[in-house]
Amino acid sequence: MAVTYTPLFHLLIDRGIPNFELTEKAGFSVNVLTRLRRNQYVSLDRIEKICLTLDYTVDDILEFIPDEKEKRNNDWHKE
């Protein structure tokens, strides 16, 4: 299952928070921000720091995307 952090970036835009401000307040490097933009692995520690900094939950900042195999399995269970 893939993860997308698109909701995080939408929230940042809606709140008018620049990316550099998030990295500064949450205490992580620009490299972590790059990984988020690329929907790559980010540690739970970093996710927690983002949530605490912005006062959001995990559900607010990321979304799980099922892969094709999981979609087929879910379709099979519906029949």
Could you please describe the fold and organization of this structure?
Helix content is 66%, strand content 8%. The protein is built from 6 helices and 2 strands, in the order βαααααβα. A two-stranded antiparallel ribbon has the order 1-2. The two termini are 22 Å apart. The mean pLDDT is 90.
Distance between the termini: 22 Å
Question: What is the approximate shape?
Answer: elongated
Q: How do the strands of the widest beta sheet line up side by side?
A: 1-2
Roughly what is the average pLDDT, rounded to an integer? 90
Order of helices and strands: EHHHHHEH
Fraction in beta strands: 5-15%
The biggest beta sheet is recorded as: 2 strands, antiparallel
Query: What Rg is obtained from the alpha carbons, in whole angstroms?
Result: 15 Å
Number of helical segments? 6
Determine the structural class based on helices, strands and strand pairing: mainly alpha
Helix content class:
55-70%
The total of beta strands comes to: 2
Unreliable residue stretches = none
